[in-house]
Design goal:
This protein is an alpha+beta fold. It has eight helices and ten strands. The chain has helices at residues 4-17, 30-37, 41-53, 83-90, 108-113, 153-157, 160-167, 186-191, and strands spanning 57-60, 64-67, 73-76, 94-105, 121-131, 134-144, 172-183, 199-209, 214-222, 227-230. A six-stranded antiparallel sheet has the order 4-5-6-9-8-7. It has a two-stranded antiparallel ribbon with strand order 1-2. A two-stranded parallel sheet has the order 3-10.
Length: 238
Amino acid sequence: MKNKFLLIYNDLVRAIQQGKFHPGETLPSEHELTDQFDTSRETVRKALNLLAQNGYIQKVRGKGSVILDHGKFEFPVSGLTSFKELSNQLGQDFHTIVHEVTLDDATGEIKKQLQCRSGQKLWRVVRSRQIGGERIILDKDFLRKDLVPNLTKSIAEQSIYDYIENELGLDISFAKKEIVVEPVTDEDEELLDLNGHRQVVVIRSYVYLADATLFQFTESRHRPDKFQFVDFARRTKA
């Protein structure tokens, strides 16, 4: 069973998305939510903190939890989160469609991106992410076979990161990312529901293990009207 705070979070997200609360209105108080969900105030606070983290509310002193306009999905640029983990947090109807899981020799640009030697084997995984019945993300992952020896369609449908961490015992640590806007490709046209859009937002990620080994390169292509890419920055004085 999911943690209670995630169930509360998902219930409140659905209520906001279904229009039961509107931007500028406030959620019931912590005390009222504690009674409503028959739980502790600490559990309610965890759910509210997650709502704030994902841009659904702003906590205002003396006023409570104010609903924010949340017409787009917020994609945490600085985080290193699997799609399954993100979908669990957002409480949306998410579905992964696996188009390809193949084993190829490292060549060309991908060989360069992953700093591979000639002939090194790489997994190539192509998946589209369906949200609300529309395919709006296309993920193309390349992973070193010497570090991830086995990869199946079933694993790709669930969570590759869960498999790597919990089955293989590897420690995924950090990533470098770049974000660009590019014209749609023939592959985008085939595998995404573009709804007339002629450009996509592309996030390219270089993912490292705890020992600083580069093991994955990912190109994630997003329909631009469905996402806002967010980060958290704290000012430090020089």
